[in-house]
Amino acid sequence: MRILILAACVCFLAACSSDDAGNGPVPATSIGTSGDGGGSWWWPFGGDDNEAAMAAFQGPELGVNAYLWRATLDTLNFMPLATSDPVGGIINTEWYSAPENPNERIKVTAYILDRRLRADALRVAVFRQVRNGDQWADADTNPDTAVRLENAILTRAREIHISLIQ
Known about the structure:
Number of strands: 7
Strand order of the largest sheet: 3-4-5-6-7
Number of helices: 4
C-alpha cells in the first residue's frame, strides 16, 4: 500500500510541473557590441522577435531584461561603475562630479526588476552631495533627475531592440 501511495505522489508531482515561460531560467546568448571597441553583453531570448538570429550564440544566463541592462550601462557610461549584478539587476555607480561643478557630486543606483522590456521594470535612484568645506553633505535631489534618467534608459533600450530586429 505504501508503494502505491508513493507512486501516486510521484505521479501527482510530475503532473504539477509547468513549462510556463515565467518560471525557471531563460536561456541566454552572447552578442558582441558594435562600435565600442569590442566586448560582449548578455542577451536572454525567450519569445523574442529575432530569436532565430540570436540562436547562433550561447553564453551564461542573465536574470534581467538584456535591453534594459545594456541601455543602463550605455546611459551611465560617463560615471565610474562601482558594482553591477546582472542576475539581481542592480547597477551602482561611484560618486561623480562634473568638471564644471566640482562642489557637487551624484551617485546612481539602477534597479532592473523584470525580464520583460517594460517601463515599470526599471527604477533609478539618484543621490546627491554638496561640499561644505572639507566634508560632503547629503543634499536634496530633483525628483525629475531620476525620471529623466529612466526615460533615457528606456529610449536607449528601444533603440537597441529595434536595431536587432531589423
